[in-house]
């Protein structure tokens, strides 16, 4: 038997050993993921680690993903471009950060007065959300997936109580994005400030109020030490982070690794919501125990009504400007109405009937 | 080169092609799963199909799972024994069905006045729930995992309105298990009736009321045509189904297939909650549109208070009788209290502030 024949036999043997034609191709895939967050960022960073660990274990090491945090790639908001250009095969960030590139990426994270987390997952997976997100991202060669939910975000830390709309006038508040625009319509002065400067800005009255996330991530920021009022949320009822995958890199994976990657991302996203629920409950208990003077408040009804009205007007402007925006916003609003009926008669009616608040 | 050398070369080549020692062992695993449900049972049956499909795709066909519904194995409530004895490698059912075998299996599905779905997942994965469940099931050589959540179940369909505790006295209601025992303490006559006879029993006044699941599964049963009152839930706020795996069969799988199986079960469970949320919203809208006379009610506060008191007494009896029951119930109650604070200040405060009900 000649050496070439031996080699032929080896090739045939290697094919025979492959359980499915498109499964283990003998290749090892070494991917890189860029995330918006700094190293060891709690919860958000856990979601990427969780995803990469699941992929490694399920693929028996055939696909491994190195995670680069913002200290490494130096561009917290460059993730979209990294993935689009193929510099990184994957990214972890939030879709609403890309509204400057494409306004329609804005609607796949959360919306003020929008869906709760369970409603929004139902919209993504059964109400047309994934299909609409694909339509928006396809044109950039980027695949976008849910990347983990924070749950309902708190309305923020305030040094003074908000009793009427007048108290919003001139209020200097760190509240970025869409919600900031809503409050600006009511006379507030929204600003954005890097996270490292937030505590000092609030302490020195450079700002009067700020929103961050919720007890899960607020506790370690220390805001409860200098702002006695913690307001319940309206502006981000179900913030969903985002996994991004370069379409070309994905297409080059064997089918079993594609399935492993997709399911690991989905599970890591759900898992992050579960973790957020846990950490929020735990940290809220700590805040209440150690700082009993912190007062949790909801904006008075007339203030809520005015914010809601300003928000609806802003959304109408978006819908009027762009056909795809209109299509997405209509889908969200119709789905929210249908799902909310059930939420009201299930979890809400249940909680209300317990008479515990 | 002799033939034996060629064979040696083939063996070496096959080892070189195996990415990790414990990964693809070249074997194909053909498993069977027995489920409590009949064939094509919606949502519950979708959870097992979803799980098996993920396993097949992620393993490239190395692990496949055949699903036997109750028409095939003829023992809807024999699933625990099937898996324990190794007759089936896997099962899909609900933990509270096994309370006759071990009272402590009762607490891993849902409890009256217990946790909501998001709170309960947080307890399972971060609050010690999985560890307690393992402690209970280990002694049977069975692994137990969350198997999909229905969300908050409705309190049931009633032919007459419940205005006071007197209306519960003598009320013949199909409501099985723990919740039935609670209502019995208040003078109701709980019974269990096979699902196929429920509609006729209610129509012919053999029973006055019944509970099933919620809009997601109630719609196709047609109860809304003959019972005008649909009460909100208290007795199963977060019913979690169950995947079971025979420990020995699991131990024989290579590590990558173990990871694939575990993550597929976890994802299928989360996915079922998302699907339940969707189907409930959709079907509730259908009921409200086609049967506008259906009235959704919550039991009056004094009735709720009495049910809650009877429930607490029953739980105390359980805790007093069995040390492990006490340990599990204490864990659940402590966790529920901590998590509920957050639920009240997040989703509940948000929904209440919208003034939409």
From TrEMBL, chains A, B:
Residue numbers binding substrate: 153, 174, 211, 236
Any one GO CC term of the record: tripartite ATP-independent periplasmic transporter complex
MF term (GO), any: metal ion binding
InterPro entries named in the record: DctP_fam, SBP_TakP-like, TRAP_DctP_sf
UniProt: Na(+) binding residues: 212
GO biological process, one term: transmembrane transport
Taxonomic path: Bacteria, Pseudomonadati, Pseudomonadota, Gammaproteobacteria, Alteromonadales
Metal-binding found in the keyword field: yes
Annotated signal sequence range: 1-23
One Pfam family named in its UniProt record: DctP
Organism from which the protein derives: Opacimonas viscosa
Keywords, alphabetical: Metal-binding, Signal
Name of the protein in its database record: TRAP transporter substrate-binding protein
Keyword ATP-binding: no
């Amino acid at each position: 038997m000649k050496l070439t024949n031996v080699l032929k036999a080896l090739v045939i043997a290697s094919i025979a050993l492959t359980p499915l034609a498109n499964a283990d191709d003998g290749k090892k895939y070494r991917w890189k993921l860029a995330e918006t967050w700094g190293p060891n960022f709690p919860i958000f960073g856990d979601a990427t680690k969780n995803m990469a660990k699941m992929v490694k274990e399920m693929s028996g090491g055939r696909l491994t993903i190195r995670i680069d945090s913002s200290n490494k790639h130096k561009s917290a908001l460059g993730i979209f471009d990294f993935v689009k250009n193929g510099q990184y095969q994957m990214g972890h960030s939030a879709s609403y950060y890309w509204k400057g590139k494409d306004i329609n990426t804005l609607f796949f994270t959360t919306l003020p007065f929008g869906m709760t987390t369970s409603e929004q997952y139902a919209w993504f997976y059964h109400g047309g959300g994934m299909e609409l997100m694909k339509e928006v991202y396809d044109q950039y060669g980027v695949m976008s997936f849910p990347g983990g939910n924070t749950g309902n975000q708190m309305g923020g830390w305030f040094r003074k109580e908000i009793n009427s709309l007048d108290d919003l006038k001139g209020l200097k508040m760190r509240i970025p994005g869409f919600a900031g625009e809503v409050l600006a319509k009511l006379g507030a002065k929204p600003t954005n400030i890097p996270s490292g400067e937030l505590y000092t800005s609030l302490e020195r009255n450079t700002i009067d109020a700020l929103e961050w996330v919720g007890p899960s991530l607020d506790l370690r920021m220390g805001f409860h030490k200098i702002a006695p009022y913690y307001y319940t949320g309206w502006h981000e009822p179900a913030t969903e982070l985002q996994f991004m995958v370069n379409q070309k890199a994905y297409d080059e994976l064997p089918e079993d690794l594609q399935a492993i990657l997709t399911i690991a991302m989905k599970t890591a996203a759900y898992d992050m919501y579960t973790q957020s629920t846990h950490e929020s409950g735990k940290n809220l208990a700590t805040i209440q125990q150690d700082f009993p003077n912190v007062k949790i408040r909801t904006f008075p009804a007339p203030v809520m009504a005015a914010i809601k009205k300003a928000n609806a007007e802003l959304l109408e402007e978006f819908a009027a400007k762009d056909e795809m925006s209109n299509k997405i916003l209509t889908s969200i609003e119709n789905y929210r109405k249908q799902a909310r009926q059930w939420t009201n008669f299930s979890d809400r009616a249940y909680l209300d009937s317990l008479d515990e608040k």
